[in-house]
Structures are given as structure tokens and as C-alpha cells.
Amino acid sequence: xxxxxxxxxxxxxxxxxxxxxxxxxxxxxxxxxxxxxxxxxxxxxxxxxxxxxxxxxxxxxxxxxxxxxxxxxxxxxxxxxxxxxxxxxxxxxxxxxxxxxxxxxxxxxxxxxxxxxxxxxxxxxxxxxxxxxxxxxxxxxxxxxxxxxxxxxxxxxxxxxxxxxxxxxxxxxxxxxxxxxxxxxxxxxxxxxxxxxxxxxxxxxxxxxxxxxxxxxxxxxxxxxxxxxxxxxxxxxxxxxxxxxxxxxxxxxxxxxxxxxxxxxxxxxxxxxxxxxxxxxxxxxxxxxxxxxxxxxxxxxxxxxxxxxxxxxxxxxxxxxxxxxxxxxxxxxxxxxxxxxxxxxxxxxxxxxxxxxxxxxxxxxxxxxxxxxxxxxxxxxxxxxxxxxxxxxxxxxxxxxxxxxxxxxxxxxxxxxxxxxxxxxxxxxxxxxxxxxxxxxxxxxxxxxxxxxxxxxxxxxxxxxxxxxxxxxxxxxxxxxxxxxxxxxxxxxxxxxxxxxxxxxxxxxxxxxxxxxxxxxxxxxxxxxxxxxxxxxxxxxxxxxxxxxxxx
Amino acid sequence: xxxxxxxxxxxxxxxxxxxxxxxxxxxxxxxxxxxxxxxxxxxxxxxxxxxxxxxxxxxxxxxxxxxxxxxxxxxxxxxxxxxxxxxxxxxxxxxxxxxxxxxxxxxxxxxxxxxxxxxxxxxxxxxxxxxxxxxxxxxxxxxxxxxxxxxxxxxxxxxxxxxxxx
Lengths: 552, 166
Ligand code: HEM
Ligand code: SF4
Fold this sequence. Notes:
The structure holds two protein chains of two kinds.
Chain A: H1 6-27, H2 33-41, E1 45-47, E2 52-57, E3 62-64, H3 65-78, E4 82-85, E5 90-93, H4 101-110, E6 127-128, H5 143-153, E7 168-171, E8 185-191, E9 197-203, E10 215-222, H6 226-240, H7 251-258, H8 260-274, H9 283-291, H10 306-314, H11 316-325, E11 326-328, E12 334-339, E13 350-352, H12 353-366, E14 370-373, E15 379-385, H13 389-398, E16 413-414, H14 429-438, H15 442-448, E17 453-456, E18 470-477, E19 480-487, E20 499-500, E21 505-506, H16 510-524, H17 531-538, H18 541-547
Parallel strand pairs in A: 6-7, 7-8, 16-17, 17-18
Antiparallel strand pairs in A: 1-2, 2-5, 3-14, 4-5, 4-13, 8-9, 9-10, 11-12, 12-15, 14-15, 18-19, 19-20, 19-21
Chain B: E1 4-6, E2 9-11, E3 16-17, H1 24-28, E4 34-38, H2 39-51, E5 55-60, E6 78-83, H3 90-101, E7 107-112, H4 119-124, E8 129-131, H5 138-144
Parallel strand pairs in B: 3-4, 4-5, 5-6, 6-7, 7-8
Antiparallel strand pairs in B: 1-2, 1-8
The complex binds protoporphyrin IX containing FE (HEM) and iron/sulfur cluster.
């Protein structure tokens, strides 16, 4: 984990003092709501349907157990005893009181956490693959690079009032778990023939009402130039991004309007000046940041464990969990364990204060005191010994954190929707629950296999519905809540945007609709073809026919 | 009376800011000896303005291209950057371009919706004078320039990023 030095600490303190004063001036009537708006947003504070909502950054998804305990105590002291992990490696509190937010931020700062730039038209929290540093197929650990980007983007004076929000994702593995291509800037870490590190730079990806897959503007940017190149992109966007229409203000629209080549030319022209200038990264700085992310004290262990195999043979649920939620680790004798926050009846991504404390204890006991947060709204223990898996499983089971669904149908990604969000067209949490109830049985889910199902309560797409294999979007139809279904989306290395199935459905129809879609897949799949592969082969028509068969 | 802060001091403002649609004759007959003319007028009548005997500055609006002043910076004692609304962040980039790219050494002044809470970032980008919007308190504005002890990234004010100073 990155550890703050005095510079980091001081800047965080400066920010807290600044926001305390801004809040005071707002409450005293010295700042108008309009003037206060971007200030509070850049400190993570929304005013929502029922109360303010505070979004706290979990930089590139890494948390220490100490930080997680603090998040738990904040949930208890300032909120209603729970919080929500979002699709952007952030955590959200739904019930804080504005007057108390400066105190809450001061508490967060005690554990080197904050809500800086988690909202507003600025560079947001940088996200990455939750397996960074432990993945078997990793090219390069993305975390030091994310930290470098975090520092560069924090309080950047030139880019605090962009046309619109700006999200950067970094991915260091061939298998993309960071939805890199649907970010304003996506960075794939690469190595050239000489073993030198660089970045493939994509721009203009994004979801929302105009979903776009990012386009590559640089195939291999040597690492030294990362920040100067980012500065150049940001400057072009800040100057030329549209400001006349909020819905056309994202960088993706600029790239579309002027074309990728023209955009690249502008960036390169701007970059020429800064290239090799003082912002050029140094070996020392990269080395300094890497030190925080070196391997923990792994033991030399066998990669087989008879006791675990025996436990799996006698405990069916454990064997399911082992199969789904446990991934291989770069180090023999260790495994990566995902805790799926998708218990039926609980809003996807929600977690209680006691569960957070439990996970913190578990991390201390079994995983070097670290936890990761995923954009699929789950948690990860990255360094669990193979021999400890059964103990970890049994402990999680008691806390309702052992659902063996990871990557299966019930591992639904879902935004807060109409229950919390004032922009919603429709509720999303109850839809997730009704589908989870229908597919509760593990064998059914297992038979369906890997699939992603994403739900957003409106076209802002916080639930990433465009890139779900099955996407569900809440729409407003003459004042009632309806749901549009898309098929074929994916946020993998081969990112694709889902296509609309047809007219939308009422809430009560949704489990049946999903059931029919799944049946078309099961009837048509060949061998062990995945849902997505079958869809890509047979196309939309069979699904349409089945789902709308008895319509009219 | 609007307040002008320059290099951390409250100072008098000799400059007369002319309307965006002003024509050459009106500009030249302005009673002030120091005029700030709109970008378009400057581009069209640079020579007449320079020969007028007045001190002439240019106002760059947020949709003007500061690079077009590349050959002019040497002649300009002052360039004003307009913030039509405080949320419009283009002038931050314009300031950085004037300083870093065009090596402009004169005064860069923020005008328009210049509020207390953006001053620190403006200064970091190379703006050194601030024509405060109505209602902004001077003491608060002066305090804003020191809100943060340092910055991580390379800025106009401190080109060395923190990682080269740490
Ligand atoms: C409840 C308060 C929330 C509000 C008011 C809100 C608002 C928005 C808006 C307006 C957009 C569209 C931006 C655009 O298209 O330019 C958006 C996008 C997004 N939000 Fe939220 N959101 C909220 C909560 C969440 C939550 C809880 C999550 C995670 C579960 C989330 C994750 C995202 C993501 C991933 C996007 C898509 C990013 C993109 O367009 O590239 N948001 N949000
Ligand atoms: S997708 Fe819409 S309903 Fe859901 S959280 Fe985002 S803005 Fe709210």
C-alpha cells in the first residue's frame, strides 16, 4: 500500500481546512448553491433524493484493514450502519449530514483517505484491475502507475473545471478486469521487445447516454512520457471539449466530432512542447512508488493441499465457492479470494459496518491486512494461503459473505437506482433481487456459466449496462418504470456494446424475460460455449423471437 | 469599486476594459490612456492600436485561441483572460499556454466571474492579477493564495513536480 509522507499528509490537511471553510461560507450564505456545487462535488458530496451522498475514493481499489475499519466506524457514526461499493472502486454513504461532512473527512484523513475529486468535472479516482500485483498473467503491476497518476491528477490547477467528469483506468494484464476501454482515457501497460515498459493509450471511451469504446491514439508510449502525454490530452480536452451542452461535453464527443486522427494531431502538437520537460518521469520516482507495492512475505508452499481437497469433497457449497470465487495466484500455495457482495435480498455492493470489520479482521489474519475493491462491486483478499481457504470460507459463511456466485448470473452489477438516486428513471435494486430469486439455485447458475448482468436505473449508466452480456436499463414510459434489455455487451479486452432487444418491459416481467433469454442460450449453445459466444454466433433474432413470441 | 489584486497586493486599476463589440474609433477615443481591447479588434487593428499612443492590452475570451498571440506577446504589457462563468476552465489552459508556450512575461489578469475559490488554481497556472467579482471579500481572497502548501504536478508557478523536489 502507498504510505503518505509529510507532503501527502499536509496537502490532505490543507484540503480539509479549505473545505471546512467552504462549507462554513455556504451555510453562512456567503456562497450561493451554484458556487458551492462544484466545490462540494470535488469533495465527493452530492445532494440526493433523501439526503446528501458522500463518495469516498478508494484509490485504484486498494484498502488496508485499518482503512476498512475506519469506513465501518464512519458507517456507524455518520450513517445508518452500511455503505455501498460502487462500480468505480469508490464507496458511497447515503445518509451523512452536510454539517458533519468536514468532520467525517477529517476522520478519513486519519487513515489517509479522502473524497477528493470523486465527483465533479475533474479527473476522478483512477481505477485498475483488482488482481494487480498478484495475477498470474500480469505484464506489470499497475498500482505504482496508478499512484503516479493519482498524485499528478490531485488538485491539478489546470484541470479542475473541465467540460465534464474525466475517468482514467489502467490495466496491466492481458485479461482486462478494469473495463479499460470504456474510460475517458484507458491505459494498457505493455512491454516492447527490449522489455521496456510503455502504455497503449486509448481515448474517448465512456458509457452514459452515448456509449463509446475508446480509440487508440498511441500504440506504445514509453513510460517516461506518461504524465506529459496525459497533460497534453487534458489540455486539448479542456480547451476544445464542448461546454454548450452537458450531454455532449465528454471527451468521447470531441474525439467523435473532430475524428481520432485530428485529435491525435492536436495532442501530439501540444505534447511536443512538454516532452522531455520537467514533468518527465524519472527512474527514481518510479522506483519510489514501486517500493510501496512489493510482495509481502510469502512463504514457500506447495501448490496442492490434501486437506482442502478433502473439505471440498465433503462440503458441496465450499466446493462451489472454491470453483467460482477462488483464482490462481502468481505465487504457488496462495490463492486470490473474492467475496461476492451479492447475497440475494441485499442491494448489490452494499455492506454493513460489522461485515466491514469482519473483512478487516479476516484480511489481517489471512491476507497481509489488505483488501481490494472491484468494479463489479465485490471485495478481494489477494494473498490467502491455499491451506487457509476452508477456514476463510467458513468464517465468511457466518457473515453472509460466502455466496459462491462470482462471475455467474447472480453476481449482478447494479446502481442504486430509484431507491436512492434523484436522476433515476426507475428502480434497479428490486430488479436485481427478483432475478436473483429466480436463479437462486447454484446448479442452475453453474449450468449457465460465466455471464455478466448489469442494471442501471437511467441512461447515465452507472451500472455499466451497455457492457453487460445482459444489460438492463430503467426507462420512463409515460410516468411508469419500464426496463429495456440489451444483449451482447462486454467490458473485456474485446469490449463490445450491447444491442437493444426490443420494446421495454414492466418490472414484474423481468425475471421471465431473463429466463427466456437464458433458455435461448441453453438451447443453442455448442459444447462449453459461453453466453456471449453463443450470442455472437447466433445473433439477436432467436432471442427476440422467444421473448416477444406471445406479444400483440 | 471592484477590487484588483496584483502579485498579492491590492492595487489601483488604470485599465479601461472595452466592450466586446467595440469598434476601433470608439476604442481610440476612450478617455483612458490604458485600454483593454477585445481579441478580434486587436487582431484586426493591431498596428493602429499600437500607434495610437495609448497603452494597449488584449482581452482573451474563453473561446479565443491564445496561440494566436504568439507574435504579439512582446508588445503586450497586460493580457486579460475572461472567465464568463467561474466553471468555465478554459482560461486556466490559456494562462499556462501564454506562460509556458509563448513565454509571456507581462501581467496576466483574470477578469469576469473571478471568485475566491478558484484563485489558488489561477495563480498556479500563471495568472498574477485578479479583478475580483463583486462581493468577493479581499481578506478572504488574499488568504486563498496560500491554501495549499505545495502541489504534486508541474505547474507554471513551480515547474518542478513534487517528485523532483521530494
Ligand atoms: C447516487 C448518485 C449518483 C449520481 C447522481 C450519479 C450520476 C451520474 C451521471 C450523471 C453519470 C453520467 C455521466 C455522463 O454521461 O457524462 C454517471 C455515470 C456513471 N456513474 Fe454515476 N451517479 C451516482 C451513483 C453512482 C454509483 C453508485 C455508481 C456505481 C455503482 C456510479 C458509477 C458510474 C459510472 C461507472 C458511470 C459511467 C461512466 C461513464 O459514462 O463513462 N455512479 N453517474
Ligand atoms: S444510472 Fe441513473 S439511476 Fe443509477 S445511479 Fe446512475 S444516475 Fe442514478
